[in-house]
Amino acid sequence: MCYSPLVLATESARKSEISRHSAVVRVTHWLTVIAFVALLITGGEIVISHPRFYWGEVGNSGTKPLFSLHIPASRGTVPTGYNFVMPDQNGWSRYLHFQAAWLLLFTGLIYGIVGFWTGHFRKNLVPGRGQRTWSAFRGVMAKTFRRGPPDVADARSYNVVQRATYLIVIFVLFPLVIWTGLAMSPAFTGAFPWTVIALGGRQSARTLHFFLSGALLLFLIVHVAMVYLAGFKSRMRAMITGRASAEEERP
Amino acid sequence: MSAMSRRKFLRAGLVTTAGVAGIAAADRLAHRYGLIPPDGGGIYGPGETLNYAAQRLFASHAPAREFPRSMISKTPFANAVAPQSDAFKQLQAGGFADWKLTVDGMVACPTQFSLADLKHFPVSSQITEVACEEGWSYIAEWIGTPLKGILREVGVLPQARFIAYFSIYPDWWDSLDMSEARHPQTLLTMGMNDGDLPVSFGGPLRLRVPRQLGYKSVKYVTHLTATDSMKKFGKGLGSAAPEGGYAWWAGI
């Protein structure tokens, strides 16, 4: 084995760098970004065609809604109070919504299987023994709101609030948003009726799907804001190249 | 290139090759087993093919959900339709006595049925939900005769792969694969909630496809054709829906 001096020099320059995100985490992260943004935009377009929400099995323009969004609709049959109709974007929105959902599903399966296989969840996401307390949780929250300097450890691993949030997003919100989405499919619920009965009906599934999407959108906004506050360049570099500087920098 | 990065490079190459080969093999199998929908090309083709293939593989015999009588909606929603043509108004004036359903294409004996003829076939009813792609829904009882009985009567040839169906509206037509066409709940509907099917809900004759969204249940049906390919109809995408940007398979 012979190393060229150039390689040696590169190796020594990287001394102060650490490996932050594995290739699987990085690739599945960005695929999820693509799928989720597509789902969010097309989901919004689909809502515009009937911006009324109901509870139970059925609901339509002739029944009382649980609540309505005060926006114009893309269909003339919906009573919105506006006297104009938005352009109909449902066709391509529905095509892309399901295509992006498949991308999300396959990406999630690969991420989940590799995550359990490699111990990613156990090592990086399940809070350590000492962290699993409300006081640790409150401590992180208080420091975040004070805009205190980040711990050196923050560049290498996640704190308890991040870990709890990521676990909820990965194992609660995404599975639920996929379930409530499928519970609106007449073919899927025909094969698996309990998937919609357990939610209280098709319209309940649709309303829950809307709120779960809202929760995921809230996560996206806070996540991007925190990345910006923690140092946009270094965090982006870590999620693209996998490497992070061992010394923390300030934005 | 160091030994480490060469190994990584080789591994990435192997994973990519396996992935491409896997997709190519899946595509060949999907073609052989008829899992590609007529609108399975284009940029949304992969998603549409996955939707349809998943249904064919895992849910092709599952029935649509049925509901108790107590859940029938008091306010079913008829949705908007274009004004009726003079030809339709004339038929309506005659109480639809002259309404004809023509069944032809790849069948042993092409036949024209009047509504009275159709009422001689076994009566079937179902309390199922109409769900629109927009998001709203209602439950009603639908009364008619299963399409599969008509298909048996005319003797659909074994090479037929789709049943295309046409409304009295010139641009409103659709098609079903044979498993959906022969599904016991696919219903030539003439009655609704213990009365005649109202015109606003598709009367005198609507093809109810309860395992798919509302737009698949075409109103005012006058013509059925058995065919081995949907390429010959319209733009060859299986129905009028994809020509307006909507999916051919509407089970989701």
Describe this structure in words.
- The complex is a heterodimer of chains A (251) and B (252).
- Chain A is 62% helix and 4% strand.
- Chain A contains 9 helices and 4 strands, in the order H-E-H-E-E-H-H-H-H-H-H-H-E.
- Chain A starts with a helix and ends in a 6-residue tail after the last strand.
- Chain A is mainly alpha-helical and 251 residues long.
- Chain A has a domain at 126-243.
- Chain B is built from 7 helices and 10 strands.
- The longest helix of chain B has 30 residues, at 3-32.
- The model of chain B has no long low-confidence stretch (mean pLDDT 93).
- Chain B has helices at 3-32, 45-58, 86-93, 115-118, 147-154, 178-181, 240-243, and strands spanning 100-105, 111-114, 124-131, 137-146, 162-167, 173-177, 187-192, 195-196, 206-208, 221-227.
- With 252 residues, chain B is an alpha+beta fold.
- Chain B has a 5-stranded mixed β-sheet with strand order 2-1-10-5-6.
- The N and C termini of chain B lie far apart (50 Å).
- Chain B has a single domain (64-243), classed as Oxidoreductase, molybdopterin-binding domain (Sulfite Oxidase, Chain A, domain 2).
- Chains A and B meet through helix 3, helix 7 and helix 9 of A and helix 2 and strand 4 of B.
